[in-house]
Amino acid sequence: MTPITPTAEYVLPTGLQGPFAVSTHALTKRFGAALALDAVSLQVPEGAVYVLAGANGAGKTTLLTALLDLVRPDEGRAEVLGLDTHRQGAMARAQIGYMPGSVTAAFPWLRIGQFLSLLGGYYPGWDASYVGHLTERLDLDLNARIRGLSKGQTRRFQLVCALSHRPPVLILDEPTDGLDPEMRDEALGLLSEHLADTGGTVLLATHHAYEVEGLADHVGIMRAGRLILQTPREVLQSQLLIYRADGPEGWAGPAHLDAQVIARARSGREIQWTVWGDKRTVEQAIEASGGVVRSATPLGLDQAVTALMRTKELR
Amino acid sequence: MTEHSLKSPPGFWAVLDAQVRSTSLTLRREAFLLVFLLVVMTVGAIFDVMLDGGVIVVSLDIGLLFAVLGLMFPWAVWRGERPFDVSPLWLLPIHRRTAALARTMAGGLWLVVICQSIFIWYAGLAIISGGGFPTHEVRYLVTSGGALQRISWTPEVWQWLTVFAAPLVTYLFASAALLSLRYPIRWLAGGLIATLILAIVAPNGFMESVIERLMLGPLGFDHVLTGGREDIEMLVRLPTGETGVAWRRLPDAERWLAALAAWLGLALAALVAAASRSRRL
């Protein structure tokens, strides 16, 4: 099969419309020889639920911890609600509810209630009744010792800590990791309620995009420290399509496409392309080469993320 | 979002209050251990007094024990935190230097409470045993002419204050080390090796002179630890013919205060520098 090449340098979109609740500006971080973040310009619009996807080691956690000023960038800077995360670090962190990716909870000798009571001391306007509501919804016993929590309970406890002070910005690292389906739905339901109450912004890193498919309205994909795409979800769904087409014997499809080919497969006379680009342009190119487009179907969020993460050609 | 709708970080006193509460929970294990030890020692002391008829007299040397406690205390205070990693404390909406200083202050407060509690227990035990506080110790003083003079000496109030000041200074130095050194064991080993090498290659008596200046000079650390008792003591031949300890001069509150101010200032400067160290990876 003749490989299809884009007719022009085709770049996936990485710019969004502001105002932004969270943004980084060409953030670069090296750990020795390893490039953890490569000029990342993250843009999370205010009020968005932004899913940051990427394989393990793609740089997601480094990026999230940089927003908490726990990473010293080699270049670039980060902002949360217009606050420089380094120069105005304390103020910026007051706006953030953070759920770490690690399952290890701090202070294992404390009880959940004791920990939450201590946490409340750092947040003026702490609402103990709201915290009670959260622990009840996520089925957490305030008298339970942190060291005795299972992985799922620890994740729920960490989510309560992140939500408890009603932050305008939530930064969640693999929030559904370790949760059973029932608790995952409960946790996502709480997130929805939080968004409805506060009109806040969520930046959520995961490599299980299907688990948060119902919430996401913006998507960013990281690979090898680079943000290869960030876009509103509806753009993702209108631009990234699977085209199924067949043609006469020996037909190999168009030699060039003014679009980004993500994947290609052949089954008998049918050729299937996963392509990022304008639907009409792609269909016309296929038809001009002698093929007949049988269907052009948008991908689900998880399929789209997986397809984009796997494509080595994307730079 | 406008500036007005932004959430505010907590004020310093709220942070200190939260740190005092947090540290109290962190130190609970050590507190139980201390209570257990005090109970065991009380029982032991009661048996000793009842069986042997001995009495317990409160000694200023307890200050040395407190100083060692102050040296180790930061590791208990910072249990659960990771000063050079993604520590829970660094995630809070507080300036990180403020957070480190507030936690150190909270730990210092509990150190004072613990030292006071042990001291009250010790004094109580001494009083019950019929001993109590020392009065009218007989000492030998070397006069300016070199003669020995017998004097009666009662420890002054400021000497009892050294018992509580010493652990605070050692605590501040140890806290500074904990907050500034990513690998304290390596630094300790390196320091010991460097000292050993210096002792071998330096001219005869150099190390002794350095240590003497640091410990026994006019602002020597001995003044902080014991109120200068080591500095004023010397071995002499007593009128009885035996070798014993005499004082060069009387213990001096001014020397203690000067040394305390110097070492406390140094410890605080080291602590502020250590607390200001970047916590970013």
Description of the structure:
The complex is a heterodimer of chains A (315) and B (281). Chain A is of the alpha/beta class. The model of chain A has no long low-confidence stretch (mean pLDDT 89). In chain A, helix 5 runs parallel beside helix 6. Chain A folds into two domains: 20-224, P-loop containing nucleotide triphosphate hydrolases (Rossmann fold, 3-Layer(aba) Sandwich), CATH 3.40.50.300; 235-310, Alpha-Beta Plaits (2-Layer Sandwich), CATH 3.30.70. Chain A has helices at residues 60-67, 89-94, 112-120, 128-137, 151-163, 181-198, 233-239, 279-288, 301-310; strands at 5-6, 20-31, 34-40, 43-45, 49-54, 75-80, 83-84, 96-99, 169-173, 201-206, 218-223, 226-232, 240-246, 256-257, 260-267, 270-276, 292-298. Chain A has a six-stranded mixed sheet, sandwiched between helices. In chain A, strands 2, 3, 4, 6 and 7 form a five-stranded antiparallel sheet that branches. Chain B is mostly helical. Chain B is built from eleven helices and four strands, in the order αααααββαααααββα. Chain B has a two-stranded antiparallel ribbon with strand order 1-2. In chain B, strands 3-4 form a two-stranded antiparallel ribbon. In chain B, helix 6 (157-180) runs parallel beside helix 11 (253-275). Chain B is globular. Chain A binds chain B through residues 21, 46, 65, 68-72, 81-83, 89-91, 93-96, 98, 100, 102, 106-110, 114, 117-118, 121-125, 165, 167-168, and chain B through 1, 5-10, 14-15, 17-18, 21-22, 25-26, 28-29, 80-81, 86-88, 90-96, 98, 278-281. Chain A: Residues 22-249 form the ABC transporter domain. Chain A: This is ABC transporter ATP-binding protein. Chain A: InterPro entries: AAA+_ATPase (IPR003593), ABC_transporter-like_ATP-bd (IPR003439), P-loop_NTPase (IPR027417).
